[in-house]
Automatic annotation (TrEMBL):
Species per Swiss-Prot/TrEMBL record: Acetobacteroides hydrogenigenes
Record's protein name: Biotin synthesis protein BioG
SUPFAM superfamilies associated with the record: alpha/beta-Hydrolases
Pfam family, one: BioG
Record-linked InterPro entries: AB_hydrolase_fold, BioG
Amino acid sequence: MEAKWVVKNNRRSLILFFCGWGFDERCIKHISNQSHDVVAIYDYRSLDFDASVTNGYDEVVLVAWSFGVWAAGWLMEQGLLKANSAYAINGTLNPVSDSEGIPPAIFEGTVGNLTEATMKKFMMRICGGARGYAELSELMPQRCFEEQKEELILLGEYFQKRPFSNQDIWSLALISADDLIFPFQNMKNHWGDKATTIAGAHLCFGKVESWEEIISE
């Protein structure tokens, strides 16, 4: 895993943001805050995590999006990451599932047919369509396609070999009604009473102006 500081002003509270597959810190750089440092975690080709990024903070607030929900959850399950509170956004701890995640046939089709051209189409779906993709262009990642493809293949292997389902640490799950990646009902099935419905596509940060909009829900 890679860690990229977005805000580092020696504040006492840290927001630890786990990106979705293929993304980097660009998807949250526009979000302002007055009281937190922010670090983005991404690139799950390796599940090695340097927990020292949390050293010295009185509070660690975990915010995880998409497949980052699984990655953060797995680290907590293994005792490799501790947080005071945790918020899941448009993802589940069972990310490839007919009832609680992305249906296996769709996931396998995405992996098997992934090219740079189909990747662009996938990014459009993440944004809710071509119009959303154009509006959210500044949030798109700047990563090598071959790395992104390798990451998705490895994530598929991790999901099969390292299952878990402990939801205890999660404070809240925000799920988008118009998500074209994770079926809305599947996310509701997974999170139950922890789920709160929000507007927007899978990539739902475009109109978020401050972190308080997420962590004070």
